[in-house]
User: Fold these one by one.
Assistant:
Number 1:
Amino acid sequence: MLKNSQSKRFIKFALVGISGTIVDFSIFNLCISVFHLDSIIASVCSFSLAVINNFIWNRLWTYPESKELSLGTQLVKFSIVSVIGLVIRTPLFAMIEEPLIQFSNTLIGPDFFITPVTFGYNLALGIAIVVVLFWNYFANRLWTYKGIK
């Protein structure tokens, strides 16, 4: 059983993660639908803004004790973890997007509210986010926020 403070911190981390996921999906869809960016470029842009969102909220709310640590050092560590996450995410997204678009073509009819391409992109993004979530959580907990109880 998790201690009460650990449970609260985990819930806060999860809520920050949800806000980051909302930022990620929103920016991604804006980039592909409005600005017609390539899906890989859109994924990198949305990931970057979600990382900034998560860093700010984790520093201020999830790990408020971390404000005693150097902002620069913490930002560098968080950024390194995030870049490694991006290195995991980008090829994974690129590898699964086309098969998921093809799969979406078999599921979605012409009357559905989004196209099979958009659905496939979002499905690929969702899978990539879940995979990288585990890396980001453990790497940040054990390195960026090391020593914070």
Note: Residues 4-144 form one domain.
Number 2:
Amino acid sequence: MSKKRVIAIILAVVVILGGITVSSISAIVSSFISNSSSSNVDPFTEETEQQGSASKRIAHLTLNGEISDESGGGLFGGSGYDHDAFMKQLDNVKKDKSVKGVLLTVNSPGGGTYPSDEIYNKIKQIKKKGKKVYVHMESLAASGGYYVSAPADKIYAGPQSMVGSIGVIMSNVDYSGLQKKLGIKENVIKSGAHKDILSSSRPMTSDEKNILQSMLNDSFDRFINIVKNGRHMSEKKVRKLADGRVYSAQQAKENGLIDNIGYQNEALTALKKDIHAKNAEVFEYSDSVNIFSTLFSAKSTIKQFNSDIKGIKSVITNDSKAKPMYLYEG
């Protein structure tokens, strides 16, 4: 038995022993947060980055790490990105009439197709409110990181940024050869020919590859369309660029994937000029220091704990199911 699996089993025992307590706490916390949310309690406070006009403000948001609807961190690592919190920040920006512009700093390899699309949709809603959205890309804005950036009014990237990786990916591992050597055989009873598609205990059939490719093509076509509309390109040009590669900042600018090469302060200066507010207040969100934010954080921790349970189960049973991802894996 491998060392990794022994550690996973020990962790599983600890998780099981604490499971009932965690479930009880989770129920209490979720109930409290649900009731507090209906009372419009906000888990965030604002921290001023630059003093200025309170009637024309700029919200500085940061998207850092892999885009996932699971909480970041935990026993199995993670990016630290909190999707629920980030979506709440976008909602706050959308509702706040004093916010005239958004500077979104992106440093992400992308992630899940669904949470990436949720962010994209929320940014579109913010723009419909007449607010300007500028993106500044740091070291990496790839795949889903580019997907969420595409609708921005202007995109800036640092001189050493990597941009692009337009595409979709899905993968799984075939353990059938190893299982055969070990004398392990899985018995599957199913209602349809493709019910166990992506099974790790047998090779994938050509029909299954075609089914999955067709599904990925739908996600890919949506990505193409979003870039086409956001960057005002022809579909032909976008498809030519969308072979999965990342581009340097210079290449991205030459191909129309970004507007300018520059640093965050340059993007902010341009945004202030665009909204006609050189003296705009610039702020960011941080967790509120109150009982609600403490419980909000507790809910996030419990959510991550539950995610870790799934991770432990995956290690023990090899029950890892693939799904489409807007993710750069370089």
Note: The two ends are 31 Å apart (CA to CA).
